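Input sequence (632 aa), recorded before submission:
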Amino acid sequence: MADLVTLPELMLKNARDMGDQPGMRKKHYGIWKTYNWSEYADNTRALSMGLASIGFGRGDNLGIIGNNLPQLYWAQIAAQCLGGVPVPVYQDAIAKELAFVLQHSEVKVIMAEDQEQVDKILSIKDQLPNLQWVIYCDPRGMKDYDEDHLKSFADLQTEGRAFDSANSGFFEAEVAKGDANDVALMCYTSGTTGDPKGVMLSHQNLVYCSRVFIAAEGIQASDNFLAYLPMAWVGDTAYGLIISLLVGATLNCPEGPSTMMRDLRELGPTGIIAPPAIWEGMLSDLQLKGVSSSPLKRKVFAYFSDVAKRCEEHRAAGTAIGTGLGFARWLGELLVYGPVRDQLGLRRARWCVTGGAPMGPDTFGFFRGFGINLKQLYGMTEVGGLATLQPNTEASPDTVGVACPGLEIRIADDGEVQLKSEGVFVGYFREEAKTAEVMSSDGWYRTGDAGVVNENGHLVIIDRAKDVGKLGDGTPFAPQFVELKLKFSPFINEAVSFGDGHPFISAMLAIDFENVGKWAEGVALPYTNYMDLSQKPEVITLITDEVRKINQGLPEVSRIKRFVLLTKDLDADDNEITRTRKLRRGFIAEKYGPVIEAFYGGATDVELRLAVTFEDGSESFVDAHMTIQEAA
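Predicted structure, token format:
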């Protein structure tokens, strides 16, 4: 395998060596359809030759938009076979967002899942001067479209097979031209502070990171993974597609986003990577089920949750678990922990990894205590998605792990974390100046994160360097620390904290509409919509109690003094958060400026006119009246 330097070469090796073994599955109408490695390679080859037949070739970029589908993964490798570069974009992005990324990346062909995605592309086609073809995978609803630049996936493959027959040796020659340093993938950053940037990653970048992860977790050909994360996120490629190509493991695509949890339980993957928001959502669901269950079940769950917490504390401290606690842990495995893992679909998972954002220690400890091997990693798109990883025996909510083999970490004089490895990206597409900004003169990537390496060699991330500030009295203030604590409540979905330069900490909170809605039904509280529910006096009392409980677990200087319940959730369509649910703090501070003024000006009420963006890009305005709450 040492001679194989590109992803298409790895795919062809799997087709030769394990052609009859499952390479990919897709659930459709409740039935899993399996594609073995031979079928995987045949479909990719036909698609690659179809792209060649319509003029796609070396140096061209291929846009990809849709949910996780075998056809879209084949499209990534098909583009690479020809020396092209796949550019996956977020499937839930509105047309206005897509216009920037697809125009900036100069895509020549777009591979779209279905009519919904095609419609978005057609609405912005006049802004995409390089676009020549739009290929759609699902033909439903496409019968009456007569645009001459539209073509179905099936027709493109048919044309590709004809092209292949007429051009013997063309495919093999194109694949052979591939080099480890060729750009293999372009992922756009989330754009928390400005326009997204196209991160160019080579075959070498991606393969290095995936090989490190495979070695750390002992991944084998018999392993199964669920491909459910957005294809636009580098982690979906690094921890799914490329691992599958390297070891022959099977990639499984769920039926759709709404069936993901059900498909997860059915599949029972041997490993899973999920951002903190998903783990927090799982925990919220469990907590809510506990609240609504019978008194006996609540007591049993609460008791064994406490047992799990105490056992995890012993593990973290390296102290022995006593006989009595050990017996309770054994009994809890039979009655609670095992059934919960089974319900979550993690009964066979040897490792579970989270990354992309900090995770609260309470959430982390809960899953660890229930026997789930949850660990944290640290990485970003510019380093192929992986820089540090926690060993099984050193998992902790306080660090993000140790440097991966072949990667170096240094902390700059200003506290910024800087990295150097084979995974560091080629550069930003058409952005040489911005590339230079994040690369030091001696070849280190500047992450923009503030952190330290502790005495055990683990990296500790404090916050984004630009977000770390100080309260008015000089006390350090890290917004993420406070926000993580607040989001541990099952009734709080999003939190934005303020305090830099101010005398105390305040926060804007968005309720978890589903969980608070279930709570409201349980107490017979009627409501009409999010705005109505969030401003109910009973809900304000509920959240006030939650904030006060959270305050008790915070140092006095970090406690929230004032907060407000938003009348709408933070939304990526409204530019308040990114598609990966990272806060756009600068935009939020500007948009909600009157709320911040009310926090620190002593006001008790605030009036605000909020812009709301719909899926088609149109805007409307909603007038909101919010009351500032005291949490002291």
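Checked by second reader. The longest helix spans residues 295-317.
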